[in-house]
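Revision sheet: structure tokens.
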Amino acid sequence: MPGNGAVTRSTLRQQIADALRDEVLAGRLQPGCAFTVKEIADQYGVSATPVREALVDLSAQGILEADQHRGFRVPEYTLADYRAMIEARRLVTDGMFQALAAAHEAFREADNPRTVALLATVRRRGEEAQRAAAAGDLTVLIGYDLRFWRELSCLFGNPYLADFLHRLRLRSWVCAVHHLRRLPDLRGRLWAGHTELVDALSRRDVAAAHAIVTAANEHALCLMESLAGP
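Predicted:
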């Protein structure tokens, strides 16, 4: 059984990772911002080990990247990177929808308790995301949007695909957030079709769900292209 020190270090590691991720997504840590393990450890008043582990975790997720000269830095993603992320998201979700249409018997059963309960939970996440989008509250939207897609991905029955999609969407937000936060008013600018997607899946209308996701990707790309230039 691990001792209290191991538990504390693991807790610190997660707390530091969560705090730094929130700083990046809030736009307070700008692209290109670099720092060392020691600087973060001093800032939080902790030892270097949980900080180093947290930074490595965030680098694996694409929220930070290793910098041989400074330790770690916030990635400077380009518009080309964002286009590639959207394309990767499309390929993943296209495969998921094909699997649903072809072979996901649990999804086909209208009264399947697990599917009904999962869709109800995901819909609540979607409602919160839509409210945040309508209000232009980017911080709240990002949190609920990530949870929405993470939970929705469970429908497809492949945890590896779900995790990959989550990382793609997280990187997409990291790429987009500093552009979006420069806008004085985000109301009406952010995609808010979450419940529409859930309703299509609840009807087992895979074609409609696919069309909604395609439109969402196109909306995200058009918005970024308008903000980030050619």
